[in-house]
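Protocol check, entry for the methods section draft. Step 1: assemble the input record (protein sequence plus ligand SMILES). Step 2: submit for complex structure prediction. Step 3: store the structure tokens unaltered in the notebook. Ligand used here: zinc ion. Step 1 record:
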Amino acid sequence: MWQVHTVGNQNYLYAPSRKILVDGGPGKEQARKLRQAIGTVDIVLLTHAHADHYGGLPYLLTAFPGLRLFLHSRETPFLCNPLLEPALLFGGLPPRVLSNPFLLGPSNLPFQEIDSTWFLELELVPLPGHTPGLFGIAMGDTLFAADTLFGPEIVKKYPILYHFDPEETLRTLSTVEERFTTFIPSHGSPGGRELLRINKEAIEQTFETILRTTTSGTLSLEKLLQTTMTLLAPVNSLDHYFLNRSALLGYVSSLEKQGELTLQLENLEVMVQGR
Ligand SMILES: [Zn+2]
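Step 3, stored output:
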């Protein structure tokens, strides 16, 4: 039923028999190329509400006025208010550097929540972690995994992988490990179980780097973030810094919830202490 299409550096699914497209691309240009590759679209299934997956929808809605858009109920707040994505990354009203089209999606898109019958009929697979309501699509022993995992070239370039809840992503990856043998990410090249392993190892390496950094005594949260980024993925642009920072805070919170480290306020600095 499904065809895989690669436009730019993103992978999409399209079902010609029902004219269903999975994800709408980061913007007009990719959506235009996608339209040229696939033809007509009646329905878009959005795997998750990140702007680089739905920025192309205004173009597609203009091209196909009857187009219907569906996504998981846990993702809908982000589509109702696209400012929530950059605000989540920043921790408050986002600055201009995070208000670019890659992170701040279009507003006022008409959408409907996907219901459970769709999950059965189209073999949608809940894959929480990267975002709370992300789903993938099963195609026999192949899984279209959206951003639950990334191609090897992406993992190498950006080793601090963004997952809202990295611990939940690890659990999700474990649940799909036995069922599927091939994995298609939204970004980067598909692969077998080796790709799953590379992604798991990158997440584990980030957890371990934070833990190692906190074993030598108490340090400020800012110092911990700086040291971890320096060790894993030095960045020199503000938007990339905020992306990594937001990702790392998720890893820190996971470890704090596991009791591996504690957070406290000292002289108006958040201090982190390992076990
Ligand atoms: Zn994403």
